[in-house]
Amino acid sequence: MLKPNKAHHFRDDFMTHNIRFAPSPTGYLHEGHLLSALYVWAMAKLKNYHIHLRIEDHDLSRARNEYIDSIYEDLEWFGFEWDSESKQSDRHEIYETALKKLNKENLIYGCHCSRKSLSMENPSSPDGEVIYQKHCLNKALPITSPNTIRLKVESTLIQWNDLRLGFFEENPALQCGDFALKDRLGQWTYQFAVVIDDMEENIGMIVRGEDLRNSTARQILLMSLLGKTTPPLYFHHSLLYDPQTGLKLSKRQQSQSLRAERMNAIAPEEILGRLCFKQHLIKNKCSISLNDAILLFSKQIEGYLQQK
Protein backbone atom coordinates (compact mmCIF):
# COMPACT_ATOMS: atom_id res chain seq x y z
CA MET A 1 0.00 0.00 0.00
CA LEU A 2 1.23 3.52 -0.75
CA LYS A 3 2.37 5.52 2.23
CA PRO A 4 0.62 8.86 2.90
CA ASN A 5 2.27 12.20 2.15
CA LYS A 6 4.94 10.67 -0.10
CA ALA A 7 5.58 11.36 -3.77
CA HIS A 8 5.41 8.26 -5.96
CA HIS A 9 6.93 8.63 -9.41
CA PHE A 10 5.90 5.73 -11.62
CA ARG A 11 7.97 4.77 -14.67
CA ASP A 12 6.61 6.10 -17.95
CA ASP A 13 8.64 3.90 -20.29
CA PHE A 14 6.66 0.67 -19.77
CA MET A 15 4.89 -0.64 -22.85
CA THR A 16 2.88 -3.67 -23.80
CA HIS A 17 1.35 -4.31 -27.18
CA ASN A 18 -2.29 -3.52 -26.26
CA ILE A 19 -4.21 -0.29 -26.71
CA ARG A 20 -7.96 0.12 -26.38
CA PHE A 21 -10.91 2.04 -27.81
CA ALA A 22 -13.63 2.03 -25.17
CA PRO A 23 -16.96 3.69 -26.05
CA SER A 24 -19.93 3.57 -23.70
CA PRO A 25 -23.27 2.51 -25.25
CA THR A 26 -25.36 5.26 -23.62
CA GLY A 27 -26.03 6.99 -26.93
CA TYR A 28 -24.91 7.00 -30.54
CA LEU A 29 -21.29 7.76 -31.42
CA HIS A 30 -20.55 11.30 -32.61
CA GLU A 31 -17.61 13.09 -34.20
CA GLY A 32 -15.79 13.31 -30.86
CA HIS A 33 -15.72 9.52 -30.67
CA LEU A 34 -14.39 9.38 -34.21
CA LEU A 35 -11.61 11.76 -33.20
CA SER A 36 -10.68 9.50 -30.28
CA ALA A 37 -10.78 6.39 -32.48
CA LEU A 38 -8.43 8.00 -34.99
CA TYR A 39 -5.96 8.81 -32.23
CA VAL A 40 -6.16 5.23 -30.94
CA TRP A 41 -5.67 3.64 -34.37
CA ALA A 42 -2.94 6.15 -35.20
CA MET A 43 -1.04 5.37 -32.00
CA ALA A 44 -1.45 1.67 -32.70
CA LYS A 45 -0.01 2.15 -36.17
CA LEU A 46 2.88 4.21 -34.84
CA LYS A 47 3.77 1.80 -32.01
CA ASN A 48 2.53 -1.49 -33.52
CA TYR A 49 -0.02 -2.09 -30.74
CA HIS A 50 -2.83 -4.62 -30.84
CA ILE A 51 -6.19 -2.82 -30.74
CA HIS A 52 -8.80 -3.92 -28.20
CA LEU A 53 -12.43 -2.77 -28.53
CA ARG A 54 -14.09 -2.53 -25.11
CA ILE A 55 -17.81 -1.82 -24.75
CA GLU A 56 -18.04 0.08 -21.45
CA ASP A 57 -21.61 -0.77 -20.47
CA HIS A 58 -21.08 -0.68 -16.68
CA ASP A 59 -23.95 1.83 -16.42
CA LEU A 60 -26.72 -0.70 -17.02
CA SER A 61 -29.42 1.90 -16.38
CA ARG A 62 -28.37 3.85 -19.50
CA ALA A 63 -26.74 1.25 -21.76
CA ARG A 64 -28.84 0.01 -24.69
CA ASN A 65 -28.34 -2.87 -27.12
CA GLU A 66 -29.25 -0.58 -30.01
CA TYR A 67 -26.31 1.66 -29.11
CA ILE A 68 -23.97 -1.34 -28.92
CA ASP A 69 -25.12 -2.48 -32.36
CA SER A 70 -24.58 1.01 -33.72
CA ILE A 71 -21.02 1.18 -32.35
CA TYR A 72 -20.09 -1.89 -34.40
CA GLU A 73 -21.96 -0.62 -37.47
CA ASP A 74 -20.33 2.82 -37.33
CA LEU A 75 -16.81 1.47 -36.86
CA GLU A 76 -17.21 -1.06 -39.65
CA TRP A 77 -18.72 1.61 -41.93
CA PHE A 78 -15.56 3.70 -41.57
CA GLY A 79 -13.38 0.61 -42.05
CA PHE A 80 -11.87 0.30 -38.57
CA GLU A 81 -10.56 -3.14 -37.63
CA TRP A 82 -9.52 -4.44 -34.22
CA ASP A 83 -7.79 -7.50 -32.77
CA SER A 84 -9.93 -8.37 -29.73
CA GLU A 85 -12.97 -7.15 -27.83
CA SER A 86 -14.82 -7.33 -24.51
CA LYS A 87 -17.94 -6.03 -22.82
CA GLN A 88 -17.99 -4.85 -19.21
CA SER A 89 -21.36 -6.41 -18.43
CA ASP A 90 -19.74 -9.82 -19.01
CA ARG A 91 -17.02 -9.18 -16.42
CA HIS A 92 -18.95 -9.06 -13.14
CA GLU A 93 -16.99 -11.91 -11.53
CA ILE A 94 -13.66 -10.27 -12.36
CA TYR A 95 -14.78 -7.03 -10.69
CA GLU A 96 -16.06 -8.93 -7.64
CA THR A 97 -12.69 -10.66 -7.26
CA ALA A 98 -10.88 -7.31 -7.27
CA LEU A 99 -13.36 -5.85 -4.78
CA LYS A 100 -12.83 -8.79 -2.43
CA LYS A 101 -9.09 -8.20 -2.57
CA LEU A 102 -9.56 -4.59 -1.52
CA ASN A 103 -12.01 -5.61 1.21
CA LYS A 104 -9.56 -8.18 2.56
CA GLU A 105 -7.00 -5.40 2.91
CA ASN A 106 -9.57 -3.15 4.66
CA LEU A 107 -9.49 -0.57 1.88
CA ILE A 108 -13.23 -0.15 1.22
CA TYR A 109 -16.36 0.74 3.20
CA GLY A 110 -20.10 1.21 2.81
CA CYS A 111 -21.63 4.67 2.44
CA HIS A 112 -25.30 5.66 2.63
CA CYS A 113 -24.90 9.32 1.63
CA SER A 114 -27.50 10.41 -0.89
CA ARG A 115 -26.71 12.35 -4.05
CA LYS A 116 -28.28 15.44 -2.45
CA SER A 117 -26.21 15.16 0.73
CA LEU A 118 -23.03 14.67 -1.29
CA SER A 119 -23.42 18.06 -2.93
CA MET A 120 -24.50 19.77 0.31
CA GLU A 121 -21.99 18.34 2.81
CA ASN A 122 -18.77 18.12 0.78
CA PRO A 123 -16.54 20.71 -0.90
CA SER A 124 -16.11 20.68 -4.66
CA SER A 125 -13.02 20.89 -6.83
CA PRO A 126 -12.61 23.81 -9.27
CA ASP A 127 -14.20 21.69 -12.02
CA GLY A 128 -17.25 20.96 -9.86
CA GLU A 129 -16.39 17.44 -8.70
CA VAL A 130 -17.47 16.52 -5.17
CA ILE A 131 -14.55 15.80 -2.80
CA TYR A 132 -15.97 13.16 -0.45
CA GLN A 133 -15.04 13.79 3.20
CA LYS A 134 -15.29 10.28 4.72
CA HIS A 135 -18.67 10.86 6.40
CA CYS A 136 -19.44 7.13 6.56
CA LEU A 137 -15.91 5.81 7.09
CA ASN A 138 -16.41 4.73 10.71
CA LYS A 139 -20.09 3.74 10.56
CA ALA A 140 -19.40 0.07 9.71
CA LEU A 141 -22.19 0.03 7.12
CA PRO A 142 -22.70 -3.13 5.02
CA ILE A 143 -20.76 -3.31 1.78
CA THR A 144 -23.92 -4.16 -0.13
CA SER A 145 -26.63 -2.33 -2.05
CA PRO A 146 -28.29 0.09 -1.36
CA ASN A 147 -25.01 1.40 0.09
CA THR A 148 -22.32 2.86 -2.12
CA ILE A 149 -18.92 1.17 -1.82
CA ARG A 150 -16.04 3.63 -1.46
CA LEU A 151 -12.26 3.33 -1.55
CA LYS A 152 -10.25 4.68 1.38
CA VAL A 153 -8.03 7.29 -0.25
CA GLU A 154 -5.00 8.39 1.74
CA SER A 155 -3.17 11.64 1.03
CA THR A 156 -0.67 10.54 -1.63
CA LEU A 157 1.09 12.43 -4.40
CA ILE A 158 0.92 10.70 -7.76
CA GLN A 159 3.37 11.82 -10.42
CA TRP A 160 2.82 10.88 -14.05
CA ASN A 161 3.70 12.04 -17.55
CA ASP A 162 1.22 12.65 -20.33
CA LEU A 163 2.75 12.14 -23.76
CA ARG A 164 1.03 15.27 -25.03
CA LEU A 165 0.41 17.47 -21.98
CA GLY A 166 3.55 16.77 -19.97
CA PHE A 167 4.21 16.19 -16.25
CA PHE A 168 1.50 16.12 -13.55
CA GLU A 169 1.66 15.79 -9.77
CA GLU A 170 -1.76 15.21 -8.21
CA ASN A 171 -3.26 14.07 -4.92
CA PRO A 172 -6.52 12.09 -5.34
CA ALA A 173 -7.46 12.81 -1.70
CA LEU A 174 -7.70 16.49 -2.69
CA GLN A 175 -9.19 15.88 -6.14
CA CYS A 176 -12.08 13.59 -5.25
CA GLY A 177 -11.60 12.05 -1.80
CA ASP A 178 -12.89 8.52 -1.18
CA PHE A 179 -14.34 7.75 -4.59
CA ALA A 180 -17.04 5.18 -5.33
CA LEU A 181 -16.30 1.74 -6.75
CA LYS A 182 -19.91 0.53 -6.80
CA ASP A 183 -22.99 2.73 -6.67
CA ARG A 184 -26.20 2.49 -4.63
CA LEU A 185 -27.87 0.50 -7.42
CA GLY A 186 -25.13 -2.13 -7.30
CA GLN A 187 -23.56 -0.96 -10.57
CA TRP A 188 -19.80 -0.77 -11.04
CA THR A 189 -18.46 2.74 -11.47
CA TYR A 190 -16.35 3.90 -14.39
CA GLN A 191 -13.35 4.59 -12.15
CA PHE A 192 -13.33 1.02 -10.85
CA ALA A 193 -14.29 -1.00 -13.92
CA VAL A 194 -11.88 0.76 -16.26
CA VAL A 195 -8.92 0.13 -13.94
CA ILE A 196 -9.70 -3.59 -13.61
CA ASP A 197 -10.18 -3.87 -17.37
CA ASP A 198 -6.93 -2.07 -18.18
CA MET A 199 -5.04 -4.37 -15.81
CA GLU A 200 -6.72 -7.60 -16.92
CA GLU A 201 -6.50 -6.75 -20.63
CA ASN A 202 -2.84 -5.74 -20.32
CA ILE A 203 -3.37 -2.25 -21.73
CA GLY A 204 0.00 -0.54 -22.00
CA MET A 205 -1.14 2.71 -23.65
CA ILE A 206 -4.28 4.69 -22.81
CA VAL A 207 -5.41 7.22 -25.40
CA ARG A 208 -8.49 9.25 -24.47
CA GLY A 209 -9.88 12.79 -24.40
CA GLU A 210 -8.40 15.38 -22.07
CA ASP A 211 -11.74 15.65 -20.25
CA LEU A 212 -10.71 12.39 -18.53
CA ARG A 213 -7.24 13.58 -17.55
CA ASN A 214 -8.36 14.29 -13.96
CA SER A 215 -9.19 10.59 -13.54
CA THR A 216 -5.61 9.49 -14.13
CA ALA A 217 -4.06 9.94 -10.68
CA ARG A 218 -6.87 8.10 -8.87
CA GLN A 219 -6.74 5.29 -11.43
CA ILE A 220 -2.98 4.95 -10.99
CA LEU A 221 -3.54 4.87 -7.21
CA LEU A 222 -6.18 2.16 -7.49
CA MET A 223 -3.94 0.12 -9.80
CA SER A 224 -1.16 0.27 -7.25
CA LEU A 225 -3.46 -0.88 -4.44
CA LEU A 226 -4.36 -3.87 -6.61
CA GLY A 227 -0.72 -4.71 -7.15
CA LYS A 228 0.22 -2.93 -10.40
CA THR A 229 2.96 -0.44 -9.57
CA THR A 230 3.84 0.36 -13.19
CA PRO A 231 0.87 2.03 -14.89
CA PRO A 232 0.22 2.37 -18.61
CA LEU A 233 1.42 5.30 -20.69
CA TYR A 234 -1.13 8.08 -21.17
CA PHE A 235 -1.98 10.33 -24.09
CA HIS A 236 -4.90 12.74 -23.61
CA HIS A 237 -5.97 14.35 -26.86
CA SER A 238 -7.81 17.62 -27.41
CA LEU A 239 -11.62 17.74 -27.66
CA LEU A 240 -14.13 18.92 -30.22
CA TYR A 241 -16.56 21.69 -29.31
CA ASP A 242 -19.92 22.73 -30.68
CA PRO A 243 -19.39 26.11 -32.42
CA GLN A 244 -22.92 27.20 -31.46
CA THR A 245 -22.87 26.39 -27.73
CA GLY A 246 -19.15 26.28 -26.98
CA LEU A 247 -19.69 22.97 -25.18
CA LYS A 248 -17.73 19.82 -25.95
CA LEU A 249 -19.46 17.32 -28.19
CA SER A 250 -21.30 14.77 -26.06
CA LYS A 251 -24.26 12.43 -26.02
CA ARG A 252 -25.88 14.53 -23.28
CA GLN A 253 -25.77 17.55 -25.58
CA GLN A 254 -27.34 15.41 -28.31
CA SER A 255 -24.48 16.12 -30.68
CA GLN A 256 -24.95 15.04 -34.30
CA SER A 257 -24.42 11.29 -34.42
CA LEU A 258 -22.32 9.36 -36.92
CA ARG A 259 -25.31 7.05 -37.33
CA ALA A 260 -27.47 9.97 -38.52
CA GLU A 261 -24.85 10.95 -41.07
CA ARG A 262 -24.59 7.33 -42.17
CA MET A 263 -28.37 7.15 -42.57
CA ASN A 264 -28.26 10.37 -44.61
CA ALA A 265 -25.83 8.70 -47.04
CA ILE A 266 -22.95 11.04 -46.25
CA ALA A 267 -19.75 9.26 -47.28
CA PRO A 268 -17.38 8.25 -44.47
CA GLU A 269 -14.48 9.78 -46.44
CA GLU A 270 -16.26 13.14 -46.36
CA ILE A 271 -16.62 12.97 -42.56
CA LEU A 272 -12.97 11.95 -42.15
CA GLY A 273 -11.85 14.83 -44.36
CA ARG A 274 -13.98 17.29 -42.40
CA LEU A 275 -12.46 16.09 -39.13
CA CYS A 276 -8.88 16.25 -40.45
CA PHE A 277 -9.59 19.81 -41.60
CA LYS A 278 -10.89 20.76 -38.14
CA GLN A 279 -7.71 19.34 -36.62
CA HIS A 280 -5.59 21.41 -39.05
CA LEU A 281 -4.10 18.26 -40.56
CA ILE A 282 -5.11 19.32 -44.08
CA LYS A 283 -5.41 22.84 -45.51
CA ASN A 284 -8.66 22.41 -47.41
CA LYS A 285 -11.79 20.34 -46.88
CA CYS A 286 -11.79 17.22 -49.01
CA SER A 287 -12.71 13.55 -48.81
CA ILE A 288 -10.00 11.36 -47.35
CA SER A 289 -9.59 7.62 -46.79
CA LEU A 290 -9.36 6.05 -43.36
CA ASN A 291 -5.78 4.92 -43.97
CA ASP A 292 -4.72 8.43 -44.98
CA ALA A 293 -6.50 9.94 -41.97
CA ILE A 294 -4.74 7.52 -39.62
CA LEU A 295 -1.42 8.39 -41.24
CA LEU A 296 -2.02 12.12 -40.69
CA PHE A 297 -2.89 11.56 -37.03
CA SER A 298 0.17 9.32 -36.62
CA LYS A 299 2.40 12.12 -37.88
CA GLN A 300 0.78 14.55 -35.45
CA ILE A 301 1.33 12.14 -32.54
CA GLU A 302 4.92 11.62 -33.62
CA GLY A 303 5.40 15.38 -33.43
CA TYR A 304 4.12 15.41 -29.83
CA LEU A 305 6.40 12.55 -28.86
CA GLN A 306 9.46 14.24 -30.34
CA GLN A 307 8.79 17.29 -28.17
CA LYS A 308 8.91 15.22 -24.94
Explain this structure.
The protein is α/β, with parallel strands linked by helices and 308 residues long. It has a single domain, classed as Rossmann fold (3-Layer(aba) Sandwich), CATH 3.40.50.620. It is built from ten helices and eleven strands. It has helices at 31-47, 65-78, 92-104, 115-121, 172-175, 190-200, 216-225, 258-263, 268-278, 290-307; strands spanning 7-9, 18-21, 50-55, 84-87, 108-111, 148-151, 157-162, 166-170, 180-182, 205-209, 233-237. The protein has a three-stranded mixed β-sheet with strand order 1-7-8. Strands 2-3-4 form a three-stranded parallel β-sheet, covered by helices on one side. Strands 5-6-9 form a three-stranded antiparallel β-sheet. The chain is globular. The two termini are 31 Å apart.
